[in-house]
């Protein structure tokens, strides 16, 4: 029985409700009166239900799809302006006792090199990341209760926040680790994490059980209810995601939105972010062995439909996707991207020899952070290294009320410009800096509030002339 408020995964992600949703979407996918009504509702920027969004996703009418894309682009502009938040993943360990059939870190893979970074190695990696210009990290690790303990994570987070190298600092540490207990989530919160990220992989329970044949992750309910426990433990920024390609995308899409609706209903806060990874080639993983791969057009439509269904939720795309796909995805709703990423354990300080690769997946976008930043600016985006909300305590519902008040333009835009200026001063190549300085000169005029604008101008001067850092609203 479907119950959005239930604490049981089988009820808030009800299989029957998803099947009924898909049948409803099929029946109505060419019902232009209904589609127009849903688009009109979406224009109010209050979001859509999983049923409504599923009708749009199923709709094959080209003219309506163009309208959906235009609306997604407009909502993206209204909520996020032309800012794109930058981050990098940091792999701590690829030891894993699970048997996920789509990931090369699965326990039966005996030939991939296994590594766990020591605190000294973490220091080296973080200094290398700081020297690229990163301020926001997403920690990644496999599940291994003996090696990858909570104490190890807590110590690693402390190490990372403690590293001050030249003008560098990691100001927000997000973490993507296995489902755990309320008490452990509380410890992570106390350690100062930003977002707790956990991909569902697939919402289809039967497929989930087959794709996770062994290890603690086999427990679908424990995994699916993890965000509830995280929120009970005080983490109010959580990041959802499915791995597109494992099961049917329309099923996953409905499940993902039902999960978001559940968090909103049960805790009053929807997901902080949604990630949209697609299955990619990796050591001993061939994506062609999975039947549900999606092409670029479908992938982009999913992104557009998520954008209009949950306008307040940030959307993340990684270097799994290549430059041209990332470019189109940015227009349709993506608000955060990684740059200069290494998906191996320890690849920032010293690149791994090719025959000893510990990568989780092949990276399709191999550009440096400087190249990604320049590319974004050439398309008139503002790469932002802002981490202000988390550091000002604006998480969970406080963050959401900032979004809903419309004041985000007076916060995010200036913060983006000031953190970009820091990046240009400390890390950019001369060519990137020249493009960035011109962009900042233009964009500072778009700060709506005059008082705020004058403060930003003064802060930009202090960053450039007095080597001052870390201004924020
Ligand atoms: S997806 Fe995560 S849990 Fe599964 S094998 Fe890979 S690292 Fe382990
Ligand atoms: S001000 Fe807050 S919402 Fe805006 S970019 Fe910075 S951290 Fe994100």
Topology:
Elements: H1 9-12, H2 15-28, H3 32-43, H4 50-58, H5 62-80, E1 83-93, H6 119-132, E2 136-141, H7 150-162, E3 172-176, H8 182-190, E4 193-197, H9 205-211, H10 220-224, H11 226-232, E5 238-241, H12 249-267, E6 273-275, H13 296-309, E7 314-317, H14 323-332, E8 336-338, H15 369-378, E9 382-384, H16 388-391, H17 396-405, H18 408-426, H19 430-443, H20 450-466
One iron/sulfur cluster (SF4) binds next to helix 16 and helix 18.
Task: Describe the protein's architecture and organization.
49% of the residues lie in helices and 9% in strands. The longest helix has 19 residues. Helix 6 links the parallel strand 1 and strand 2. It is α/β, with parallel strands linked by helices and 473 residues long. It binds iron/sulfur cluster (SF4) (2 copies). The site of one iron/sulfur cluster has 10 residues, from helix 16 and helix 18. One iron/sulfur cluster (SF4) binds next to loops. One of its GO terms (biological process) is water-soluble vitamin biosynthetic process.
N-end to C-end Cα span: 45 Å
The number of helical elements comes to 20
Class from helix and strand fractions: alpha/beta
Q: What sequence of helices (H) and strands (E) makes up the elements?
A: HHHHHEHEHEHEHHHEHEHEHEHEHHHHH
Q: What's the average pLDDT?
A: 96
Task: Explain briefly what this protein structure is.
The chain has 473 residues and is an alpha/beta fold. It is built from 20 helices and 9 strands.
């Amino acid at each position: 029985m479907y119950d959005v408020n239930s604490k049981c995964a089988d009820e808030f992600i009800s299989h029957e409700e998803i099947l009924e949703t898909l049948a409803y979407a099929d029946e109505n996918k060419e019902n232009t009166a209904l589609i127009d009504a849903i688009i009109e509702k979406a224009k109010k920027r209050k979001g859509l239900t999983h049923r409504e969004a599923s009708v749009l996703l199923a709709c094959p009418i080209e003219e309506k799809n163009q309208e959906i894309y235009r609306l997604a682009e407009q909502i993206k502009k209204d909520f996020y302006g032309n800012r794109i938040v930058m981050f990098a993943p940091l792999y701590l360990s690829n030891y894993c006792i699970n048997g996920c059939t789509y990931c090369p870190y699965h326990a039966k893979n005996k030939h991939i090199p296994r590594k766990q970074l020591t605190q000294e190695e973490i220091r080296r990696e973080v200094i290398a990341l700081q020297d690229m210009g990163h301020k926001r990290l997403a920690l990644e690790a496999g599940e291994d209760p003996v090696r990858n303990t909570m104490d190890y994570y807590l110590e690693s987070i402390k190490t990372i926040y403690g590293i001050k190298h030249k003008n560098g600092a990691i100001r927000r540490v997000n973490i993507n680790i296995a489902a755990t207990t309320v008490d452990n989530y509380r410890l992570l919160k106390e350690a100062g994490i930003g977002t707790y990220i956990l991909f569902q992989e697939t919402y289809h329970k039967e497929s989930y059980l087959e794709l996770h044949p062994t290890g603690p992750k086999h427990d679908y309910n424990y995994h699916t209810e993890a965000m509830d426990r995280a929120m009970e433990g005080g983490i109010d920024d959580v990041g959802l995601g499915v791995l597109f390609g494992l099961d049917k995308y329309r099923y996953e899409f409905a499940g993902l939105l039902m999960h978001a609706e559940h968090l909103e209903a049960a805790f009053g806060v929807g997901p902080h972010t949604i990630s949209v990874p697609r299955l990619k080639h990796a050591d001993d993983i061939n994506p062609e062995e999975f039947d549900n791969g999606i092409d670029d057009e479908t992938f982009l439509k999913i992104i557009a439909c998520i954008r209009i269904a949950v306008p307040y939720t940030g959307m993340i795309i990684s270097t799994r996707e290549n430059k041209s796909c990332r470019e189109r995805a940015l227009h349709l709703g993506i608000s955060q991207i990684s740059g200069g990423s290494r998906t191996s354990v320890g690849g920032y300080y010293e690149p791994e020899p090719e025959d000893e690769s510990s990568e989780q997946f092949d990276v399709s976008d191999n550009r440096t952070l400087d190249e990604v930043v320049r590319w974004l600016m050439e398309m008139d985006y503002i790469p932002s290294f802002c981490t202000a909300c988390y550091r000002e305590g604006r998480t969970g519902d406080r963050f959401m009320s900032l979004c809903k008040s419309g004041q985000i333009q007076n916060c995010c835009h200036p913060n983006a410009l000031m953190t970009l200026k820091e990046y240009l001063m400390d890390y950019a190549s001369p060519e990137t800096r020249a493009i960035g300085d011109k962009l900042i000169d233009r964009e500072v005029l778009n700060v709506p509030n005059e008082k705020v604008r004058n403060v930003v101008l003064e802060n930009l001067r202090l960053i450039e002339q007095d080597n001052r850092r870390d201004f924020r609203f």
